[in-house]
Design goal:
Layout (H helix, E strand, L loop, with lengths): L1 H4 L3 H5 L10 H29 L6 E4 L3 E8 L11 H19 L5 H23 L9 E6 L8 H19 L12
Antiparallel strand pairs: 1-2, 2-3
Helix pairs in contact: 3-5, 4-5, 5-6
Length: 185
């Protein structure tokens, strides 16, 4: 019954030996699912934010803890490097290819989800840079989530942060991309 349902708890907490692990197709599908869901939520929320928050003051969601505040960011994190938008776009395109190549080797649920979310975050912001004003490779990223004392961000940024956390967990646990555990001395 467990094999018929897909991912088992042992796949998340204790990787299976390579000989008994399911085919790579399952993990690639999980990467694709995490990517499509993350990218879809990111793009839909950006369209809604641009449409409904333009020319509007901050909208409290959870008091002053979380507010909606529309900004357009031509730079990187913390709006740094705004004069390097084309370079940032090219780096994001390269990063997309690198993550796809690495994701094809994932053989655990957590690695697959992490790499799918990372891909969603990178391509979410890259999509803005490709399709939004002022033009291709120079587009501004839509940011709209605001926390106190933190730069305004978006769902793509959340995906990247969650991916980083999952990657750290897997590294701490010593779980390689292929699902094998590293020997600890």
């Amino acid at each position: 019954m467990q094999a018929a349902r897909g991912a088992s708890l042992s796949d998340v907490s204790d990787p299976q030996p390579a000989q008994t692990r399911p085919r790579p197709t399952r993990y690639r599908a999980l990467v694709a699912l995490a990517w499509l869901v993350g990218l879809g939520v990111d793009q839909v929320t950006k369209v809604l934010a641009a449409d409904r928050l333009s020319d509007r003051s901050d909208v409290p969601v959870v008091g002053t803890l979380l507010q909606l505040h529309l900004t357009r960011n031509a730079g990187a994190a913390f709006s740094t490097g705004t004069q390097f938008t084309v370079v940032l776009s090219c780096l994001a395109a390269v990063a997309t290819v690198v993550v796809v190549v690495i994701a094809l080797r994932a053989r655990t649920v957590l690695w697959s989800v992490a790499l799918g979310l990372l891909l969603a975050g990178i391509t979410g912001n890259l999509t803005d840079r490709l399709l939004r004003a002022p033009g291709v490779l120079r587009g501004q990223v839509i940011d709209f989530l605001m926390l106190p004392h933190w730069p305004v961000f978006n769902v793509a940024d959340v995906c990247i942060t969650l991916a980083a956390a999952l990657i750290v967990v897997q590294a701490y646990r010593g779980v390689r991309l292929d699902g094998r555990r590293e020997e600890r001395s």
